[in-house]
Specification:
The complex is a heterodimer of chains A (about 600) and B (about 350). Chain A is α/β, with parallel strands linked by helices and about 600 residues long. Chain A is built from 24 helices and 14 strands. Chain B has a single domain, classed as ABC transporter involved in vitamin B12 uptake, BtuC, CATH 1.10.3470. Chain B starts with a helix and ends with a helix. The chains are: A alpha/beta (about 600), B mainly alpha (about 350).
């Protein structure tokens, strides 16, 4: 069984080859061919919808660009399939890039909205251009011929289309299990965490949108040769919606959901189109009623799609630990104990008329744990967000390691070695603890999309995994490595966030209420970890409400009240300070 | 192009623009209160126009059956829910009969009155009542249990609802198109520009309704409750405003606006079972360009969309839809240049 799991990709390929040679009735070969084409388009949608939390209704339009480019060039210029593929993919990729650049900076629902409008306008464009044969489309293409072999419309075509589907699935599997893949998965949980790990979220969004479009374009290329004709009806918004339907039915969370969804929907579509008009005594596309209702019911009762049932049966495979011989990732030079690491000078933040933070200054020295405390609403979290670049400063300056970092992007500040955790744990719940921690190493590694697809990243991946394991052991989570992150108790999730930050080899750690919601023993464990980090020379800035913990671990404490600086000193000094007592407990009148 | 043609095109564009404005307002309203991007808004337009066409033909409109199906589905859904929580017979009856009440009465009246020669106002009222009653039912069937889902999931649900409603419209209205008689076929003349009575009616009704909406949101308790829900759902809930009620109310209004737009546009163009979608989407384009947040913004952009459509129909009629829908891309591009970090976080 273990072997079966390891080599399942090869097994799938073997099954495809077997099917291509078995005597299968022509009707089913045709069905399978369409399923292959649809699944290819759906793969990109899984990447967008299930993995990254974006979605597009414009996939059909991208299929259309691929198909029309192919048909037009083959008919008018006599281009061979290799050239038409190249041009189709280039055109599609470019249009996706433009649309992505325009819409992906806006909040999540603008991309689907823009793709609806774009899909509609492209449909009417294809249907009205004289050169593209208006609504009749283009007809009379030859069958697909590759390297001198005519592929035809039968099982040869099955071999080619499913072969490509297999290649695309394998490529995306490799991609998702890599540095850029983890960055792509982190997009779904909002951009704050990803950016704090040094991930260029906008860049990755555009990239996967282009990848999805290119896959659709390849499907369009195949479709043009398979049908030997193209017309706008297969590329309208109705089909854009139907592709999304396949993905929701199959399961947006897994690449295999695209295969399953395309298969189920195609077969269902075929059956409903025959039976419904007979049943209702009227001709028309009544299957849309069933599909529409099914889509709503799926989202209500089975949002993870049909594949989740299969997944439950199979179970998850544990990652094989193969990184004993890995090269260590490069480390940044560390400041000597006692040097000023963080220098905050008179920073302020106004939200309209409200001054949330007013002229706060303090320093953190290497090897120090500094606590930032204050009653609720004192502006501690805002101060944190200002230092890390999550919020833009209204005024003031921040120096990190002697360099000014005010005005920089959160991502760039993170790359300089200032790492943070979050008040509400931000993680990718369906990924393993190890993979979650590995995101922390994003800024320390270079592997990009193409390298991941071609598996040229294996060395670096091993180094990243080795580092992630090392940091997990450092915070005492070594035994939880392969667990799904969502299954960890709260205390462990917070430690996991610390390990993720450590994975970036930081000079300074910013911990935002790490003890919130922890039980007594979990707190003791946290204190132990913090002490140990300090003994290893780490500098830490801590925002915390838990006075026991703060007084216990901090060497120096900064107290804030109503956005202003109150005092700074050793724990015993701060505890004795009447101003601090007044801030927390009120004054006698 | 001379001034007369330009004037005619402008009148034409603004008349359609007024309808897009109504639909755009409905889209913005539904989005801010429920976070649902309501793609099927246009379906109500077709339902409104076709229902009236059926009444004019002395037929029982298909909306009657659709309304009854939806009402019984809601009753079933509520009944099962109540039974599962182990309720008494009395509670069970209360929960199942309540959603049936208005739909069954409206449907009953429609079936009874359809064969007679009715005055226009009563056919219009019946059509509005039939379609409006679908609004809250649709919300309960498709959206209510998903209230806390992400806008993305709600959007996909909307697309599913659109698919289902288009198919059902074909089933209940058939494939033929209808063009309703004008409510007022007076021809007026302003300077060199001729204006027909229907355009005046569309304009005045849209304007009155927008004013009424403004009054509703600004000065009535229900309107204020909806606004509160739009600003902060949890806060509103703590103040005793039910998000269920808010959602149902919003969908009632949206269905009413859709039906009204359908009645208004019915005499100016042929309506088929699926024409509503494109009409609704143009209101939708206006709402999206205005950022799905601003009512006056949606109003102004909708009038602009109407004008662009009218003038592009004159210069490049085949590409009129291409131009209108492609408009959204440069508009979003402009918007994304002014995006702040807060807006991106979602």
């Amino acid at each position: 069984m273990g072997l079966l799991r390891r080599y399942y990709l090869w097994l799938v390929l073997a099954a495809i080859v077997l099917f291509a040679t078995l005597p299968i009735p022509a009707f089913w070969v045709a069905q399978l061919n369409y399923i292959g084409l649809f699944a290819l388009t759906c793969l990109g949608l899984v990447l967008l919808t299930g993995v990254a939390g974006l979605t597009s209704f414009g996939q059909a339009a991208f299929v259309g660009i691929g198909a029309y480019t192919t048909a037009w060039c083959a008919l008018n210029l006599g281009w061979p399939p290799t050239l038409t593929l190249l041009l189709g993919v280039t055109l599609t990729g470019f249009s996706a890039w433009v649309i992505g650049r325009i819409t992906l900076r806006l909040s999540g629902h603008y991309l689907p909205l823009a793709t609806i409008a774009w899909g509609l306008s492209l449909y009417y464009l294809m249907g009205n251009l004289e050169a593209l044969g208006k609504y009749d489309g283009l007809i009379g293409l030859n069958s697909l011929t590759l390297f001198g072999h005519e592929i035809g419309q039968g099982q040869g075509f099955f071999m080619v289309s499913w072969g490509l589907l297999w290649v695309a699935t394998v490529a995306l599997t490799f991609l998702l299990n890599s540095r850029p893949g983890r960055a792509i998965r982190s997009l779904k949980e909002g951009r704050q965490m990803a950016e704090a790990m040094g991930v260029d979220t906008f860049g990755y969004k555009v990239t996967i949108f282009v990848i999805a479009a290119v896959l659709a374009s390849v499907a369009g290329w195949l479709m043009a040769y398979y049908q030997r004709a193209v017309n706008p009806s297969a590329f309208g918004l109705k089909w854009g919606i139907e592709y999304l339907f396949m993905v929701v039915v199959g399961g947006a969370g897994s690449l295999w959901g695209a295969w399953l969804g395309a298969g189920v929907v195609r077969v269902l579509d075929e059956q409903l189109q025959t039976w419904l008009p007979q049943l209702l005594g009227m001709s028309g596309s009544f299957e849309s009623i069933i599909f529409g209702v099914m889509l709503v019911l799926m989202l209500k009762y089975r949002p993870d799609g049909l594949w989740s049932w299969v997944q439950q049966g199979i179970g998850k495979t544990e990652r094989v630990c193969n990184w004993d011989d890995a090269k260590a990732l490069a480390q940044r030079p560390k400041p000597a104990v006692g040097d000023v690491v963080l220098d905050v000078q008179k920073i302020s933040k106004n939200f309209g008329g409200l001054v949330a933070v007013n002229g706060i200054s303090f320093q953190v020295r290497a090897g120090q744990i500094v606590g930032l405390i204050g009653p609720n609403g004192a502006g501690k979290s805002t101060t944190f967000n200002l230092i890390t670049g999550t919020l833009p400063l209204s005024s003031g300056e921040v120096y990190f390691g002697g360099q000014p970092v005010h005005g920089l992007h959160a991502r760039d500040i993170a790359k300089r070695g200032l790492m943070r955790t979050f008040q509400h744990v931000k993680m990718i719940p369906e990924m393993s603890v190890l993979d979650n921690v590995a995101i922390g190493a994003h800024a320390r590694s270079q592997g990009e999309v193409f390298g991941a697809i071609l598996r040229r990243n294996r060395g670096e991946e091993k180094s990243i995994m080795a580092e992630a394991e090392r940091q997990l052991k450092r915070v005492g989570l070594g035994d939880w490595m392969h667990e799904q992150a969502a299954n960890l108790p709260m205390g462990q999730q917070r430690l996991m966030e610390i390990a993720r930050a450590l994975c970036a080899d930081p000079t300074l750690l910013l911990l935002d209420e790490p003890a919130a919601g922890l039980r007594y023993l979990e707190k003791q464990e946290l204190i132990h970890v913090l002490r140990q980090l300090q003994s290893e020379g780490m500098s830490i800035l801590l925002v915390e409400h838990d006075m026991d913990l703060v007084m216990d671990v901090c060497e120096s404490i900064v107290v804030m009240e109503f956005g202003t600086y109150l005092t700074q000193g050793r724990p015993d000094q701060v505890q004795a300070d009447p101003k601090v007592r007044a801030a927390y407990l009120g004054t006698e009148h | 192009m001379d001034i007369t043609i330009a004037g005619m095109l402008a009148v034409d564009g603004l008349t359609n623009g007024a309808i897009y404005a109504l639909l755009g307002l409905a889209t913005v309203m539904v989005f801010v209160v429920t976070r649902v991007i309501f793609i099927p808004q246009g379906e109500f337009v077709a339902f409104g126009a076709l229902t009236l066409a059926m009444f004019i033909d002395h037929k029982v409109p298909g909306t009657v059956w659709l309304l009854l199906i939806m009402a019984f589905a809601v009753a079933l859904q509520e009944g099962i829910g109540v039974l599962r929580s182990g309720a008494t017979v009395k509670q069970f009856l209360k929960c199942t009969v309540k959603p049936l009440l208005i739909p069954v009465i409206t449907a009953g009246f429609s079936i009874w009155l359809a064969p007679y020669d009715l005055p226009m106002w009563s056919m219009v009222s019946l059509s509005l009542a039939l379609v409006t009653a679908m609004g809250p039912l649709l919300y309960r069937l498709a959206y209510q249990s998903l209230e806390s889902a992400t806008p993305l999931v709600l959007l996909i649900v909307s697309v599913g609802v659109h698919f289902a409603l288009t198919g059902l419209a074909l089933l209940f209205f058939g494939p033929e198109g209808f063009r309703n008689p004008a409510f007022w076929d007076e021809r007026l003349q302003i300077g060199a520009v001729p204006i027909n009575g229907q355009a005046v009616i569309i304009f005045v009704t849209a304007l009155l309704f927008i004013l009424a909406l403004w009054y509703f949101f600004g000065n009535t308790l229900f309107g204020k409750a909806l606004r509160a829900t739009a600003v902060n759902r949890n806060g509103a809930r703590l103040m005793g405003i039910s998000t269920h009620t808010a959602g149902q109310l919003t969908f009632t209004l949206a269905a009413f606006i859709g039906a009204l737009s359908g009645l208004l546009i019915g005499p100016t163009t042929t309506i088929l079972y699926d024409s509503g979608f494109l009409i609704g989407l143009k209101g939708f384009v206006a709402a999206v360009i205005a950022g799905l947040a601003s009512y006056p913004g949606a109003l102004v952009v909708a009038l602009g969309v109407g004008l662009v459509e009218a003038f592009s129909a004159f210069w490049a009629s085949a590409f009129k839809e291409v131009i209108v829908f492609a408009l959204i891309l440069p508009a979003l591009w402009l918007r994304s240049r002014h995006v702040t970090d807060d807006e991106e976080e979602h």
